[in-house]
């Protein structure tokens, strides 16, 4: 028996339907995975609402998970039945069993459990490329992270501190402010504050070389106003809705740069995926970055998890248990 959460029509959390499906058979180049944990991410909301278009409907949403190889398709030589593996960037994660292209999978090292692995693959690898490739954070930099208590945000705070940066985190509540301070944030600002004015005060007028923004529409202009001339705005999410802007604004605010990166681009080559995952695993095992799974839900209750995520009631990572 196999179950999955599927979306038949776009809409709210109520469109997430728990259904019984046949156990899939792996095609050439694929393995079948019995999943022990599934990561919850805001991109799942985008696919549920239709902001991101699925290849077909109904669709099983979800982009990351971890489990045990149960069957191997033709042509797969690097994995065998019983291997502990994890993945990110493969639509269809909200299922007890699923097939995944072998090239998308990485082996989970000793010392990392399934829940940690499912929580860190998409969010952790995203944080890793953001602070080491999209903008290579250097010792002495001062950076700003929106939604700093969330899944990617909480990892960004820790990794940037590990690299020697001064970290300004923006959160919605005093409780979340305390949380990010415990993760190493030097300054915890509330969304109700005048963020650019506070940044100007903190930096003695120098402003910032980079802002990491996963919120989108509601914070886009605020983020631009925190940057120094020729600074970089990294927009990597749309939690408040997609961003639309006149490019002339970038000129008016100091010849600014904006990028909209994705994990799939940064890990498109197998060697880049393996390198990114290995760096993430090593950094977590060293203790420099801790993966905080602060909420778990049964997979069949994915609707409740989505409600909590969209209501900003979650912190750190959330994992669904099949």
UniProtKB/TrEMBL annotation:
PROSITE patterns: QOR_ZETA_CRYSTAL. GO terms for molecular function: mRNA 3'-UTR AU-rich region binding; NADPH binding; quinone reductase (NADPH) activity; zinc ion binding. The keyword Oxidoreductase applies. Keywords: NADP, Oxidoreductase. SMART domains: PKS_ER (SM00829). PANTHER family: QUINONE OXIDOREDUCTASE PIG3-RELATED (PTHR48106), QUINONE OXIDOREDUCTASE-RELATED (PTHR48106:SF13). This is Quinone oxidoreductase.
